[in-house]
Amino acid sequence: MREQASIVTERISDRSVIQAAASRWLEALTVGSRESVALVGRHGDLRYLSVSPTLGDLLGYAPEELSQGLAFDLVHPEDRGMLRRSFAALAGDDGAVHSVDYRVRHKLGHYVRLSSTAANRLNDDMVRAIVVHTRGAHTPANTGEGSLLVQPRPVFLEAVQQAIERSRRNATYGFSVLIIELARSKMLLGSYGQEIVDEVLSKAAARVASLLRPGDTLGSLGGGELAVLLDGVRDRANAAQVAGRIQSTVAMRYHIGDHAIDTAAIVGIATSERVYERAADVLRDAALASNRARGHGRKLRAVFQTQMRVEDTRFMAMVSELHNALREGQFVLNYQPIVSLGTHTLSGFEALVRWHHPKLGVISPTQFIPVAEETGLIEPLGRWVLEEACRQMVEWGEPGLHVSVNLSNKQFADEDLSAHVEQVLQITGLEPERLKLEITESAVLENQDLATKILGRLKTHGVRVSLDDFGTGYSSFSYLCQLPYDTLKIDRSFISHIGDDGENTDVIHAIIVLAHNLRMEVVAEGVETALQAATLKSMWCEYAQGFYFSKPLDAALAGQMIDAHPQW
Ligand code: C2E
Ligand code: CA
Ligand code: CA
Asked: Which of 281, 378, 279 is nearest to 325 (CA)?
């Protein structure tokens, strides 16, 4: 810049013309730059300013609104003293260059972190100014974890409220709110402790921040939840795309001390496609979506839909009704046949609970089991299921058949479980080898020591254990080898793709070979076609279960099936 300025001086002698020319030069040099450039005098008096559109966006102003510079009282009160001291020190130090990060109030009220680098050129005759470059501090290059700005809950809510109000004034403006949680947080806590989990969370926050654009707001809601306000992102497709990027970056491995930690991000999304009045409602909807995201699918993200709120209201009603339901005998068990692929005959049943609600009709366990888990009702309900399934098997009196009973993760974290199982076997008189308990990998991962203990005790009683939904969770082959499972159930998401192409079949084959090497038998879940059944049989999968053979049946129909000795 100095050279350029001297070319100008050689040609033109009039001082005001020189200044005008210098301004033009500067303007030309800063067009399209993300940085704003200011020349100020020894006392901070503004000589020249070029505001980049980026800075305007960042602070919510049109560039013209900033043509007189940033009013000092927009600077965060806590940062004003530091900024003053830094400027005074620089002004007295010829040739020095200082960099500072500080917070400035966005037009909507929340604070945005800026980064300025200032060079003292007061004694340079060609410049005679302090040259200040300013940009947003949220870019990956300069988001050091120390300077990261994560807003506390009230400030975040305020930013969302401002966005709501802006969207009501301006029909073309919209926003989205994402709630981000670490998957398996309980397990992380159990394995590494609070301090390390906090560190993972703060690194995750820094990664999320590096993806955000000027004007976006990152907040911490407490309880391990982060939230993001995406400014100007009004439609769900775009919001989901950002969520996907956030998930990819959060899922990258964390190195903390000697630990290498893997996790994933669960993201719930609410967008201003719906009309909101209160920030709390936006957050509530994003949280509902996040609950949904946790329970379903591998994407681990979901966009809020009105249906979720309807369901949530129904859920709240459900909580109070669940307690009566058990007392009034509204739960029943259905039985889904499990078929031997070798002999094509009935091998046993999986017991699946149903709630016959007096007004709403039959309610699926996927809807009420999570509620039962949250309210503690899972314990008595689980006991009832176990007892009823064992009782029914004895009543049918077909000694060759087994029954599989699902255990929720919460039940599996109960030290008394094995004692209770033993008691039920005694009361009902069912032979232990005819009972299989289905647990998921996450049940074990959430509570490894206790799980190992409980599994060991169950095995000494002679009860068998199935690993349910294999392939949907975070399969850890080391646990698979260590723990004494008898059966591995391949999740139906694998089976449903048989027939699409060869690739999936290879994976299934690999799982079956692995299970056999570990002396486990294999059940394929969700078999719906003859092709799927035949393919599985050709890969030496022992058992299959699914609509191709039979849907879950009520006890009466299941009893008739036993008597009919079907051959599939
Ligand atoms: P799950 O253990 O994976 O049970 C299998 C689910 O897949 C059942 O859904 C069954 O109806 C369904 N299914 C079976 N064959 C097919 C098929 O060919 N295609 C398709 N699309 N689906 C098939 P259901 O009965 O709604 O149970 C859902 C989940 O609820 C179960 O998944 C299990 O995790 C839980 N659950 C059910 N009963 C109990 C229970 O008594 N206790 C506990 N803790 N959980 C239960
Ligand atoms: Ca199951
Ligand atoms: Ca399953």
From this structure: 378
Q: Across-strand partners of 100?
A: 116
pTM confidence score: 0.57
Angle at 138 (CA atoms; ends 132, 142), nearest 5 degrees: 70
The residue to which tokens 């591995």 are assigned = 488
Closest alpha carbon to 160 in 284, 260, 65, 258: 284
The pair of structure tokens assigned to 409 is 């993760």
Q: Give pLDDT tens digits for 55-96.
A: 877 787 877 888 888 888 899 888 898 899 889 999 998 888
Return the DSSP state at 145: G
- Could you say which DSSP state residue 92 is in? T
Q: Which of 222, 215, 21 is nearest to 104 (CA)?
A: 215
491 C-alpha vs ligand 3 centroid, how far in Å?
6
Q: How far apart are the first and last CA of the chain?
A: 85
**Cα angle at 407 between 402 and 450, to 5 degrees?**
115
**Per-residue pLDDT tens for 19-60?**
666 667 766 666 667 788 888 999 888 888 888 777 877 787
Give the DSSP H or E segment for 521. strand 521-524
Q: Which atom of ligand 1 is nearest to the CA of 545?
A: 15
**Cα distances (Å, whole numbers) of residue 293 to 110, 201, 286, 425:** 29, 19, 10, 37
| Ligand 1 probe mutation, 406, 409, 487, most atoms within 8 A of CB | 406
| Alpha-helical segments (H) within 397-465 | 409-412, 417-428, 441-445, 448-461
Q: For residues 360, 363, 368 and 372, what is the CA-based torsion angle, rounded to 10 degrees?
A: 80
